[in-house]
Specification:
Number of strands: 12
Number of domains: 4
Number of helices: 19
Radius of gyration: 42 Å
Shape: elongated
Low-confidence stretches: 1-28, 424-433, 473-489
Strand order of the largest sheet: 2-4-5-7-6
Largest sheet: 5 strands, mixed
Distance between the termini: 56 Å
Structural class: alpha/beta
């Protein structure tokens, strides 16, 4: 939280007049964010401290009348006392009504303090009139009493009026100056000294009042700053608790969704072992078990890949690669991808044609639209889905309509959270994993786009994403060719160094690469990798290494050590199962090709043999 010292710039609210601004500039150099509250607190303090000085006025004027009754004209004395009594009574009523009223808004603070300052100044003038009306150079009793009363009133009011400094000035100056001026005008050495002492005492009181005002103001400001800090800490604590609960829910849901296919894999493996002990094994039964194993593995890989997508988005390692392309090419891809799935459920899938061109990352946009249309197909039981575009000034809004189950308004804020699903408490994976919309929102943020949703339970939903349209220029070419997956080249076989500290993973990688016809040199540590590099240096053509190895060694360390040992650079792939933000950032920043577990064997083969 930033605070400003008293010498900093003054911020003035729009409700202050020019006179109020001058008062404000003299007294309030406080941070803008707390300015109004601090001023209101100072004004309220001024009113709370009013009763002692007001009743003190009545006591002092009564005692003064008693002491001067035989020393000055009684008519003047009574008139002076009556004026102070009336003014004090008016001030008491004003303070009483003000303090009994409901809590005052900040906007009325300046008006209240101006009124109080005006009454204080009038009171100071009445007390100061003693120095003129009752001035008696030849009467020592009157002179001494005037000096005592005026010094006592100016000194005694420091504590009660200093929280708003102009109020004290308005009272103290007219209280002391008339007597000081009258003393200097009398001209005798004694009264010149009295005039000087009066001004000196006035200056001391004003300086002390100013210091006290700053102390009170800083104390009030500190109180508000502490309240602000407590509020911020409370908000951060609540956010941390929410994040912790979300993390727990995330882990619980991920654990459930991972356990299901893992459980199925265990059962199918046990079935294979039981079948191995049978006297005869039918090929059809083995084929059925293999298909089910493949389905369970596919479900696990799907979840892990989606979790990886979320982690990569959170880690910020996905780079936006904008290019100009016609939006219709993505619409055509959506139709090809989901038409059969929609038809299988008896749904209509309509995609309106568009001539709009965009300048953004086509792959990330396709990921967003794929998730939205996939959800629409999954949660629509009858009717259909419509994908359309609308121009919005310089933007285009891509809309996905469906006639599905809809979403209640109280559930809309949660649908973009991880693993949050409407009406899927049982975590049925046929209804998805609950991560699609979380990916949609993160990807849209990456593209600088906005995602909106409107929905009515039982009537359907509308998801839309808004992007800027490419203006004026259309690049040549159709841009409709989809990116092709790398094909396996079947090129020359290679000698590959494989490094992994997990014995099972290392063995399975050896078996797989050997089945593809490659020569595999295996190592479980950095030392073994360097030894293999020295013994096979001229033959090594590729390195495949795990990222995290034993004793805090990384795959990057292995590749660099092998490169130094053989004296040349060879292609390398780093394989990692780390989905933390730090791990993803570290692996991605290495400069080498990174694949994430569970990897796609076809992609691995294509990268090695290309």
């Amino acid at each position: 939280m930033q605070t400003h010292h008293t010498a900093e710039r003054i911020s003035r609210g729009p409700d202050l007049t020019q006179d109020q601004t001058r008062v404000f500039k003299m007294t309030n150099r406080i941070p803008h964010e707390y300015g109004d509250n601090v001023r209101l607190a100072l004004v309220n303090t001024l009113y709370r401290q009013a009763p002692p000085i007001l009743f003190g006025n009545i006591a002092v004027v009564s005692l003064t009348v008693f002491l001067l009754w035989h020393e000055v004209p009684r008519r003047d004395l009574l008139a002076w006392a009556a004026a102070i009594y009336v003014l004090t009574g008016m001030r008491i009523v004003m303070v009483w009504r003000d303090r009994r009223a409901a809590e005052h808004p900040v906007a009325t603070a300046m008006r209240r303090v101006r009124r109080y300052t005006a009454f204080s100044a009038i009171s100071g003038c009445l007390w100061g009139s003693m120095g003129i009306v009752f001035f008696a150079p030849d009467n020592a009793v009157v002179t001494v009493l005037i000096c005592i009363v005026l010094a006592g009133m100016t000194g005694g009011s420091v504590a009660s009026l200093s929280c708003w400094w102009p109020t004290y000035l308005g009272f103290a100056l007219p209280t002391v100056l008339p007597f000081a001026i009258r003393s200097f005008m009398h001209g005798t050495p004694l009264f010149s000294v009295l005039g000087f002492l009066s001004l000196f005492l006035l200056g001391v009181n004003i300086a002390f009042s100013r210091t006290l005002q700053r102390t009170v103001r800083d104390a009030v400001l500190l109180r508000f700053e502490n309240v602000g800090l407590i509020r911020q800490l409370t908000e951060q604590k609540e956010r941390a608790e929410i994040a912790n609960r979300s993390k727990s829910q995330f882990l619980a849901a991920a654990s459930h969704d991972l356990r299901q296919p893992a459980h199925a894999l265990g059962l199918y493996i046990a079935t294979l072992r039981a079948m191995a002990g049978a006297p005869t094994i039918r090929g059809a039964a083995l084929d059925e078990i293999a298909e089910r194993l493949q389905a369970a593995l596919k479900g696990m890989c799907q979840l892990l890949n989606v979790l990886l997508d979320v982690s990569r988005l959170d880690a910020g390692v996905i780079e936006v690669e904008p290019r100009c392309f016609p939006l219709q090419q993505e619409m055509d891809a959506l139709e090809s991808q989901f038409l059969s799935a929609a038809s299988a459920k008896g749904l209509t899938l309509r995609i309106r044609r568009t001539a709009i061109w965009l300048d953004t990352d086509a792959v990330l946009l396709r990921n967003i639209l794929t998730n939205l249309v996939s959800n629409a197909v999954r949660y629509t039981g009858h009717g259909g889905i419509l994908v359309a575009c609308r121009r919005r000034d310089a933007d285009v809004e891509i809309q996905v309509f469906d006639t599905g189950i809809g979403i209640a308004s109280d559930q809309l804020p949660g649908i973009f959270r991880e693993f949050y699903q409407v009406d899927n408490a049982a975590r049925d994976r046929e209804q998805g994993l609950g991560l699609g919309l979380a990916i949609v929102q993160r990807t849209a943020t990456l593209l600088g786009a906005s995602v909106q949703v409107r929905s009515r339970p039982g009537r359907g939903s509308l998801f839309s994403i808004r992007l800027p349209v490419m203006q004026n220029i259309r690049p040549s070419g159709t841009g409709t060719q989809a990116q092709q997956a790398p094909a396996v080249s079947g090129g020359p076989k290679k000698t590959i160094l494989v490094v992994d500290d997990d014995r099972d993973v290392l063995g399975s990688m050896q078996t797989l690469l050997g089945a593809w016809g490659h020569t595999v040199v295996a190592a479980q540590s950095l030392e073994q990798a360097m030894s293999a590099a020295r013994s096979h240096g001229s033959l090594l053509e590729f390195v495949v290494t795990d990222y995290r190895l034993a004793r805090h060694v990384t795959g990057v360390d292995v590749i660099r050590a092998v490169t130094d040992s053989i004296g040349r650079t060879i292609p390398a792939i780093i394989i990692t199962g780390d989905t933390s933000t730090e791990g993803i950032n570290a692996a991605s920043s290495s400069g080498y090709r990174v694949m994430h577990k569970p990897l796609d064997p076809h992609e691995l083969r294509a990268l090695i043999e290309m």
